[in-house]
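Supplementary notes for students who missed Thursday's class. We covered one full example, reproduced here. Read the sequence, then the structure, then the short commentary at the end.
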Amino acid sequence: MKTKPSLPKLVPIAFIAVVLIWSTTPLGIVWSSESVHPTMAVLLRMVLALVIGCLVIACSSIRLPLSATAFKLYGFSAIGIVGGMLLSYMAARYIPSGTMSLLFGLSPIISGLLAQRILGEAKFSRVKIVALILAFSGLAIVCSSKLALGSEAGIGLVLILCAVTLFSLSGVLIKTVSLSIHPIASTVGALLISTPLFALAWLLFDGTVPTETWSEKSIWSIVYLGIFGSLIGFVGYFYILQHLNASTVSLVTLITPVFAMALGAVLNQEQVSQTLIIGAGLVLLGLAFYLFGDKWWQSKRQNSCIQ
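Structure (token representation):
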């Protein structure tokens, strides 16, 4: 009987780092966009991450593959980076950071639906269908509570849901590419494709550099997101994606909304209504059922058969 190969020691550390970074990223996006146009804020963040990443590769023995397969991987990664990040920055002007993180928690379920089409994975079990109903019922409650605050919240909700869909699509497409590559190289390759697209978005939607209006909080938020949110966060994400299955990686999106909503309430005075708590609870319960429901149900059936 073959034993499963043990995970590298850095995998748990990378997993925890990704959870912490992704928990603070939504608040960082909101702060960085307070005085800097969203397209400029995300462009500066990506440029900083790209420069540091290129320096790391230049000063190390890490190789940046330039094959057709590698560029396919970079392109698929860029879908999540450009679509997910750009739309998230635009949404940050309309909805709180906690809500952004909560809706991103739906990515495992959306990824599962997309994986059925793209990867040919099995259709959802009855437990997963229940999880889907729970999660989207919670989403409906969250959306209704935000829409009650004004029509602009609807814009933010649409933007963030589109961002989540593109992010999920990217993660599924990455799984279709078989390539052994260092996580830093994967990140830098994706940023090489993404950064010019962010520059184009800035030219189309803003095109100005009013540095005199930029606040210190926004600037430091951009620096934090450039180093941790983009470079270290992406490296950690691609690293655990290589060593863990998709459902385990998706645990990140189950854990981070709780921390993100707490941070938004404490550090940014974001309102957490009772309706939002109920909706968030249903979303997280649905995610928990989606990730662990089948194993729990099988275990319960086995125990009942033994008795």
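Commentary. Residues 274-306 form the longest helix (33 residues). Residues 84 and 163 are 4 Å apart (CA to CA). If anything here is unclear, bring it to office hours.
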